[in-house]
Amino acid sequence: MVTTFVPVYLKILMKTRAKLIASLKIWVVIYPALTLFLYLFKEPLMTMPIYLRTLLMTVSLVPLIVFIGVPFVDFVVKKVFSSSTSKPQA
């Protein structure tokens, strides 16, 4: 049985890199979703107190981001990186 030794600092670095990539994917979805939501519903939201605006935005945007936005970004990233790393056959 062969065991591979991976230093602790490399494990921490890999976890940090994965977290950074995940946060970037989430940000790529959240920023346009919030911007579009505020653009479309700015007038009706202005009459509400801020705690209701925040509640309405989170109730509507979190499921959209979690179930549609982030999976879409994952799909696009996998397509882009799988096509760029695959070599054409001669």
Give an overview of the whole structure:
It is built from 2 helices and no strands. It has one domain (about 10-85). It is elongated, with a radius of gyration of 20 Å. The model has no long low-confidence stretch (mean pLDDT about 85). With about 90 residues, it is mostly helical.
Please, how many helices? Answer: 2
| Largest sheet descriptor | none
Q: Give the quaternary arrangement of the chains.
A: single chain
Q: What is the percent of helical residues?
A: over 70%
Rg, nearest Å: 20 Å
Total number of domains: 1
Structural class: mainly alpha
Shape: elongated
Mean pLDDT: 86
The SSE order reads HH
Share of β-strand residues: under 5%
Termini separation comes to: 39 Å
**Strand segment count:** 0
Which regions contain 5 or more consecutive residues with pLDDT less than 50? Answer: none
Q: How are the elements arranged and paired?
A:
Elements (H helix, E strand, L loop, with lengths): L7 H39 L3 H36 L5
Helix pairs in contact: 1-2
Question: Which features does this protein show?
Answer:
single chain, 90 residues, mainly alpha, 2 helices
